[in-house]
Design goal:
Layout lengths: L8 E6 L2 E7 L10 E4 L2 H9 L6 H17 L4 H9 L6 H19 L4 H37 L5 E5 L14 H10 L3 E7 L6 H13 L3 E4 L4 H6 L5 E4 L3 E3 L4 E4 L2 H11 L3 E4 L5 E2 L16 H4 L39 E4 L6 E4 L2 E3 L4 H7 L3 H6 L9
Parallel strand pairs: 4-5, 4-7, 5-6, 7-10, 8-11, 10-13
Antiparallel strand pairs: 1-2, 2-3, 8-9, 9-12, 13-14
Helix pairs in contact: 2-3, 2-4, 2-5, 3-4, 4-5, 5-6
Bound molecules: 5-S-methyl-1-O-phosphono-5-thio-D-ribulose.
GO molecular function, one term: S-methyl-5-thioribose-1-phosphate isomerase activity
Pathway: Amino-acid biosynthesis; L-methionine biosynthesis via salvage pathway; L-methionine from S-methyl-5-thio-alpha-D-ribose 1-phosphate: step 1/6
Keywords: Amino-acid biosynthesis, Isomerase, Methionine biosynthesis
Length: 387
Amino acid sequence: MAEECVPVIRYEELPEGPVVVLLDQTRLPAEEAELVCTDVPALVDAICSLAVRGAPVLGIAGGYGVALAAARGFDVADAAEQLAHARPTAVNLAYGARRVEAAYREALGAGRGEAHAAAQALAEARALHREDAEASDRMAEHGSALLAELVPGGGMRVLTHCNTGRLVSGGSGTALAVLKAVHRAGELRRLWVGETRPLLQGARLTAYEAAEEGMAYSVLADGAAGSLFAAGEVDAVVVGADRIAADGSVANKVGTYSLAVLAGHHGVPFVVVAPVTTIDLDTASGSEIEVEQRAVYEVTEGPWARPLGPGAGPGGGPGGGPGLGPALAPVGAHAYNPAFDVTPSALVTAVVTDEGVASPVTPEGIAELCSTSRMRASRSADGMMKS
Ligand SMILES: CSC[C@@H](O)[C@@H](O)C(=O)COP(=O)(O)O
């Protein structure tokens, strides 16, 4: 099914020069429009406005962005820096940018010139893209096997949050890839899709992917989750992650922590699915994870709003005006708009990755997931994870 879809991201070498082409996720589900980025500032804008979003594909975007800078003769170190810092929470973004920058620098150091180094940078970005697609398949395999154990008898009703499918990945995704596998095995009775205020990645994007897959799904307002648990309608919660700290704390889309508390209270398994590239062993604990604070107008005007002028960007002033969206709150209303929250490992039943499963979620289990040869190889470049 995904084969017929507009690709989420691609690098193209056009006669007029290379470009990074994105499926513009701000316009979904209404239309499948593409956004063509010819330079790094355009790609950084696309990342900040969430035209491309979700941890794994942000890593791919970071990698292609550095390759684009190299191919167009821009300052590669500056490009990697801009991309790595475009958004702070999803560790994959810095990982992708730094990994491709390291490949470029290594090739340049070998003395075969700029063109060769640019070609090596692109090859590394393409490898990252391919590896991410393969990781989706392995997560789907590990995660669906785990769910079959956690929810015996099949016919499961699973609640998810935000969007974690093909739109966040080089392949079929993370948490939603697992749920697509469960669906294809005929074991998914209902997918509960949290709308995910304020930008509605659940209602706009997960529902769009669930419809593509022919899954039985229902969108619910975030505030309705509690009564859904109370009614006994949730057999498992399966979500993604933007960064997993060494202690197993999970940063994910805001609202995830509330779902974990509800799951714990109701004795429902709470499963996190992410590639090992989302684990950040350099971040010791959840309290060290930087949580992105976004513009007030996203809450006061909603996802239809567009940034316009000073104060409209992340951390901007009172809303009800700058984004040109319908008023959801009085003009001048203040808002609290963290993009993510952090769930402690004690509330997480299992972390599923492409390298296996950690359950219970302990620092040792998390370290073990990262100890494979693939991880050692992909993280060998100096200083790649830290900018
Ligand atoms: C697969 S990334 C983890 C997701 O659950 C979610 O937090 C996410 O998509 C990231 O949020 P976004 O702000 O849309 O980039």
